[in-house]
Design a protein that fits this description.
alpha/beta; 13 helices; Rossmann fold; 41% helix; 7-stranded mixed β-sheet
């Protein structure tokens, strides 16, 4: 189905009272969250394990430490996984209060089959991870599970002004979130990360910087949205699926501008996009980027705070 149909529907929902709740219901009924079990498996296998691989490569262990998530979403998969891995506390911030505590017990039960992988990724004994899981399952009610897991849900709240103490956090992380923040918010988010991070801490982010409408309309490329000027794109962009269209280098440059050192930058241009790039129209706003930046649809990057951040 034509992606513009979704754009029109979500644009309309974004402007009416109760539209956010109705959009959430539609996503559960017919969208990407209709199969919650599969959704959790993907989040775990394709996303959380990738971030744990980065943490292990950069020698950051989460056991007994405090974390900060930017963008909770609808299911607290990452905070629960980190709790099972031994994290002490996870502050999770979201602009909108999407998380319903009633879904937490089910999400926790879905993670049972992943306990061995959590233990392996965290360098823990399976028995220790299972004991944590059993203790949380026994709690029963969703909000109490989050509390017992050390998950503190802040929503609606601004992750660029957390109010947390300086140098109090070991890991700031996000997954498929930064592509949805406005360009004016990205640098303040990175500056707040630099402020709250401990000297050995990390700011770690996985970003899906491809056109999300391509998941809905298979006839368009994952960089279809780069053909539109800013003025044209404003017609289709909306608060329910806001896409900033930033490229990988924009995210890493924001981290550097906030006073952090980028210690990892994973992004690979897609071969099929590179091969057909001459046939893809590109708006003037994006023509200054190298082709390989335009043909990337994801980036995972990590940054550490410098000794002195710029004012």
């Amino acid at each position: 189905m034509d992606w513009r149909i979704k754009g029109v529907i979500q644009g309309g929902l974004a402007r009416v009272p109760g539209g956010v709740a109705l959009n959430d219901a539609l996503q559960r009924a017919a969208g990407g969250r209709r199969d919650e079990s599969r959704h959790i498996d993907i989040k775990f296998e394709a996303d959380w394990l990738v971030q744990m691989r980065v943490l292990n490569e950069l020698d950051l262990r989460v056991q007994g430490r405090d974390l900060l998530e930017i963008g909770t979403g609808w299911l607290p998969v990452f905070p629960l996984c980190f709790a099972l891995a031994g994290a002490r506390r996870c502050h999770t911030f979201d602009l909108n209060r999407h998380l319903n505590p009633a879904v937490v017990p089910g999400a926790l039960r879905e993670l049972e089959r992943h306990l061995p992988a959590i233990a392996e990724a965290a360098g823990e004994e399976v028995a220790a991870v299972r004991e944590r899981w059993q203790r949380l399952v026994a709690v029963g009610e969703g909000a109490q599970i989050l509390r017992a897991a050390g998950v503190e849900y802040h929503a609606p709240a601004d992750a660029s002004a957390t109010g947390l103490p300086d140098a109090s956090i070991a890991l700031v992380f996000s997954n498929s979130v930064l592509e949805h923040v406005s360009t004016s918010v990205l640098l303040p988010l990175m500056r707040e990360s630099a402020r709250v991070l401990q000297s050995d801490g990390l700011s770690l982010h996985s970003v899906n910087c491809g056109d999300h409408y391509a998941y809905f309309d298979r006839s368009i490329t994952p960089i279809n949205y780069l053909r539109y000027t800013d003025a044209e794109w404003r017609k289709w962009n909306n608060d329910l699926l806001y896409q900033n269209r930033l490229r990988p280098i924009d995210f890493t440059e924001a981290a550097r501008a906030a006073g952090m050192e980028v210690v990892l930058d994973w992004h690979v241009p897609r071969a099929e996009l590179m091969a057909g790039f001459d046939r893809i129209p590109i708006a003037p706003e994006f023509r200054h980027y190298p082709v390989e930046q335009l043909c990337c649809t994801s980036v995972t990057f990590a940054a550490r705070p410098l000794a002195v951040a710029p004012a």
